[in-house]
């Protein structure tokens, strides 16, 4: 009897990095979907490559549906290399950042526009009003 190999792989969903590029002088990476140890690599690459070349990197998290400790570790590592901002985190992601204490280290903004409107730290310009 000949057996076919089992295919235990799950179908690939949409990519976790939806888009990236310069917006108003900042580098923006738009993430989406579940961010865990199985899916984080494309986001890791996008943020890691952006960090050395940009004073401010904004992670648009408006379409992130789940994140685990691998995501938190990535945020910490990128924050050590550049000014990282998290834009539009949903309720679950905002709670995760608060629980981990990252909300005191990495700035979060209610919208992408608010994150883009705030001047870089140390620029001497006053922060933009909350959006």
Automatic annotation (TrEMBL):
All residue ranges annotated as the STAS domain in the record: 28-119
A Pfam match: STAS_2
Origin: domain of life: Bacteria
GO molecular function, one term: anti-sigma factor antagonist activity
Protein name in UniProt: Sulfate transporter/antisigma-factor antagonist STAS
Species annotation: Streptomyces pratensis (strain ATCC 33331 / IAF-45CD)
